[in-house]
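thread: overnight batch results

M.L. [08:02]
morning all. the overnight job finished for the chain we discussed friday. pasting input first so we're all looking at the same thing
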Amino acid sequence: MVLGKFAEDHFQDLALRNLQGFAIEDERVARSDTDYRLVDRNAHPICRFNIKFHGTLFRASSEYVGLDPSDCFALATYKIHGALKRQEDERLPYVFLILSVPEAPRSLIEASIADDPAWLAAISDRATEEAIRDRLLSEPWAEEIRAQVRQSEFRAISARKADKLLRQKLFERVHALRLRGFNRLFRGAEIDMHLSLSSEMISFDDFLRILGEHGVPGLSVRLERGEL
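M.L. [08:03]
and the structure it wrote out:
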């Protein structure tokens, strides 16, 4: 939750500085599959954003899915399906925004959190967890991680494109389907589609450039076709 909040804060700062004639609406209070909506100056929705923090490398990705660990992002297949279903039901494009911070210092966070807050978070509701998280964000050690997050780049991929790649590269990139006894070997693991951050996603800067050059209709068509 701490790392996710850093990513959300970073996105809001980027949006505030770079969105001209557009804005984002905060949807996190609903605790659904949407974090923000991009809207025009008349508050008409353009697309949904779901923020994903990527900080743990899949070190065997070259062997299992043919992608370098630093270029590999695992996205649960059920999340792709759910995002596309929501897009089709509401006729509103759905976009995943991935913030990649390789080797994120999770160990620093774990070492800096005392047992009592961790225990309280484990037995409490979401509101209490978020209050504990917000308190931790003010700790001195948090600034080092925040600075690292701010130097990182968001990558974007539409739900449509993720779904197209899933269908095209099902057995190539969903290695769980090729492993006998996957559920036994990796108990509790999700069935993931592995995507290339560099070649199958675009930067958020390019996303905004396409919006500026082609307008809302041009962006919407590209998202719906799975070109972005």
